Amino acid sequence: MAENLFYFFIFPGLLFAGVTGAFLSWFDRKITARVQFRKGPPLLQPFYDFFKLLLVKETILPKHGSPMVFLSAPLFAVFGATMAGVFILLPLLGINTGFRGDLLVIFYLLTIPSFSYIIGSLASGNPLAAVGGSREMKLILSYELTFLLVVAGVIMKCGQQFDLNSVIQTQQAGTPFIGSISGVLLFIVAVFCIQAKLALVPFDMPEAEAEITEGIFIEYSGAAYALIKLTKYIMFFILPAFIVAMLLNGFKLEGLGILWAILKVLGVVLLITLIRNTNPRIRIKQAMKFFLVWMNLIAVIAIVLIAFGY
Amino acid sequence: MDESHRCNCNCTYSIWILINIIVGFKSYCFKKSLWVFHFGGASCNNCDIEILDCLTPRHDLERFGILLVGSIRHADVLLVNGSINMRDKERLLEIYHQAPKPILVVAIGACGCTGGIFAEGITFAGPVDKIIPVNAYIPGCPPKPEAIIAGIVKLVQSS
Fold it and tell me: What DSSP state is assigned to residue A205?
């Protein structure tokens, strides 16, 4: 019991994932600034933002809406992200949980933050938030099948084993999954999927800042918005870590392996950041077509290639 | 009896120090991450252009943690520019009441500070500080980006 609570709150869970994700979010902002020839924020900027929202600002409840649902949605989002983080990071850091079939649990837990955002935005009673919520729903409908196909491809590649631990073991015993044609295709699809899951720029129509003024988060202020920021930090760490675990050989935490582990996560984050800085926001129809037609096609081709042993 | 009295004193003193540290931490975090919401009244758009100029690569305000946000619910600073006429007055009051407290208000440009050339117009509803409390004034028509940055620095130091 105490061990589980430690896992959830301190080491791979809330505290560790939150702090690492905050630094990664600083990395993202700094790279964005460098791409635009700016100087960028200081290293501790995500912590200033978080503590300002949590401690200083007032939380305003919507007048026409449901305050309880509105306030509990960020809590559920933090819970879902942390739980998914625990399940992803425990095998990745070499702690064997002995849980068979955790890939599917991770897949479902990773959708909880998006669903909480939708529920919270619809409970706020703001029309722009409702627009953002409906856009997020359509985005989930488009990328979720593609993400499931990626997970299915990884499961097929490691010989029908449903747990992350044996996925990592199989890669470390042989070659990493990205070392084949099907692995490269799966990696491309997975990067676009996490781009949509993080709602970063080509797919940020739920929270389009100039268009519907932050959309799903428009009514959140103070501590509730701080929890949403925390969820975003955690997701910013665990989704690249999930890709590293599924396709890029996982972590080997000894000697130079630690440096490699950090470089792999930073590399995936750098890729996401560069995609977000070099693309405009697309319409929701274009995003659905992109995922439902093209990305699904690539994922199916990858799965066929895996079936033939490439 | 003396000793217990001293112990009490120490406890109060340490609690006082703790409270001071917490308050200092809170105000430090607030100063380091000011998110700005931009309210344009009946403006001629010169001040708007200069405000946007502050966020461009040359005068990068994000290095102080200043971001332009889209929703007033996330804002810490309300920038008001342009002359406030009778229609703008209701909107400005509504925006100010929708903002989460603490909120700092900055009046930018001659029109925001005093009314400028519109001060005697028939639809003019008073400079910004007659409608809502103002924390800093940045005069100029329009103020240079350097002047806006200097005003923001003074605002941060005073709060």
Answer: G
